[in-house]
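Researcher: Go.
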Amino acid sequence: MKKTVLITGASSGFGKATAELFAARGWNVIATMRTPRELPGTFVTRLDVEKPETIRAAVDAGLAKFRRIDAVVNNAGYGLSGVFELTPDEKVREQFEVNVFGVMNVVRAVLPHFRENKGGCIVNVSSGAGVFGLPLISLYTASKFALEGFSESLSYELGALGIRVKLVEPGGVTSTRFVERSAKEASALPGDVRDYAAFVSAANQVFAAMRASRGVDKAATPEHVAEVIFEATNDASDRLRYVATNDILPLVEARRQTSETEYMAFMRTHFGPRLPLAMNQTLLITGASGQLGRRVLHHLLESNEVSPARIIATTREPARLAELAARGVSVRHADFNDAASLEKAFAGADRILIISTDELDLVGGKRLRQHETAVAVARKVGATHLAYTSMLSPEPGSPFLLASDHYGTEQALKASGLSYTIFRTNSYFENLMWSLPAIIATGRWHTSAGEGRVAYSARDDMAAAIASHLASAPNDSTTLMLTGSRAYSHAEVARLVTEVTGKPIELVPLSDEALTDTLIASGVPEPFARLRASVDANVRAGNSDPVNDTLETLSRRKPMSLEHFLDTNRAALMGG
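Model: Structure:
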């Protein structure tokens, strides 16, 4: 006996593609539409989800035609976009009438028949916006969150009756009238309130970048979504949710597989529009004459066009930043061992980036005290936001001997009462230059890292990402993991180096203790030999292998690859 499905919103998009697919696979199809039009191979009847009487009439017409309905696909819907405050109450209610109450009324209309048949399937077409929120679609998101909650709860109520409930969650598609209606509804909203203008402009840039990165080749078609709907309808298991397009998988996984803190950091990094600093806000960068500090300043001035008059650069040697002073940057002396000098240097700063100092005290905790002093001074002078360059996984138990400095500084930021940004950075490509020339010269790489991997990145890419975030005037507290998009084992690095230089490298696996002894024998001071071995131990523990695309997202450019870095630095690698 042929099965029968009733589909709402079947005139176009997902609904039309789903109706055509079910018909092609031998189902009777009740294709419902607000304005009926011919759809070959289906029984077309009128149904407007905002008018309950048409819902009852459509169900009755379908039963009269086929005597049975086995499944219902609630597809009719649209998305309202824009600033919530500017949306008239009638538009808010209409969004829920279509996307939520319309679905409920269709379900209510078919349930007596399903109960009589002791079975049936209800497929509700949700959205990625039913899983995660995005700016400027708060009402559409609210309606889809409501639909998700309703569907999950309903699945428990109806499961004992043999009635299955399914949720299909699509993201972007190449063509659907859903987008047309959504755009039409948005254009009918009142004009902007001036306070929202910068945010709306920035948010639109974010969405434009999302569309561009997705591209036509990555976007799913309505036919693809229809296949997922068909799969869900015929799946007799208890599975509830079906993600229908690959473009939203990273967001769905972030929502469902990470902690709330990690998820919010991920979303704010990717979808929190970057707004310019307020006209009266001043950024301060410590360690400004260092390699990272200089590159952060460069990207603040050049890539993010922050006015020099709004930047304070602190250093122990102001003369080294004479060129920045000539451009209008306020260059100030600061000594982390002298709280009074920090208080004078930090005066008038609103947002302060504390770049971890180069004090490598393995037993006395001097660097942590320096950082804690800086945090306390920042609070004292009235700063509003603190940022700090930390490391990946500095929590207690890390094998890296300096991890406690970073973890302690993170705790000081969190206890300060100020909003903060913690940049947890991975290792730079440039760090490899400390050891690779000697390794290439001897042809032997002594390591205790085992099969551990490191997701390196270029220092300049790290600086570009940090500068972009600082220039966006963050107001909330977040921890950002800045790391490469690919992780390499020492063996893989060695192979790449050999390809670039033509010099073979033999990996010599050692224990941490043996590596320490080997380094000491080669002339490395004992404290630094232990520190170097702890780096490998940390890699072996898996603390350096996480990858993500945050660098690219923040810097708005493709990060440098390790292959390109090695090729660019071939002469230095060869000792030239």
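Model: The radius of gyration is 30 Å.
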